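One such shown below:
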Amino acid sequence: MKLTVFGATGGVGREVVRQALDAGHEVTAVVRDPARLGVPAHDRLRVAVVRDLTDEDALVPLLAGREAVVSALGAASNKQARLTPVAGPALRAVVSAMDRAGVTRLSAVSAAPLGPVTPADGVIARKVVLPVLRRLLRDVYADLAVMEAAIAGSRTGWTVVRPPRLLNRPRTGTYRRAVDGNVPGGRSIPRADVADALLTTLGDPSTAGHAIGIAT
């Protein structure tokens, strides 16, 4: 499969690039700073530098001839999301550029707090932990909510992946999934498993048009 990956220098995006190459895919990694990619040169890897991800005209050539897009974009902090939202503005441009380039499949990472509350999580998690988290990271989640709305309103065959707390651990491949909901009791997941989920959903048409909750 020929893929274009946005957010390729982040923890999840870097794993997406590595795993996609290992699986035999051809990857265009879209970055602002190539030095931060941290993936060895490969004959199936193209690195494209784009400073402004809202520049739709600059994105179209990077999508022409591609079969799918993976977005691992997201603000690094609540302050960044408040001052310069990342995911929402970028994905508005990305889905429009995909339409122009004729690319119809998209998977994008979001976050579990944007999903519905799971009664199985218990009272403390539902009444204390989640409200505090949503308040502390309200600008990050607001940015992701704009992103999800842009994706849902597009003509792409989209899948949104919503993980809880991210860990720097090896891929397990044994995480749980919940369609249009969060995983009951799901507290964390390795970034490598999030990357696995983003790539796996591309080949699973049953996930198109759905948000998938994942957790270990």
User: Anything to note?
Assistant: The domain at 2-215 is CATH 3.40.50.720 (Rossmann fold). The chain has a mean pLDDT of 94. The chain has one domain: 2-215. Residues 75 and 84 are 8 Å apart (CA to CA).
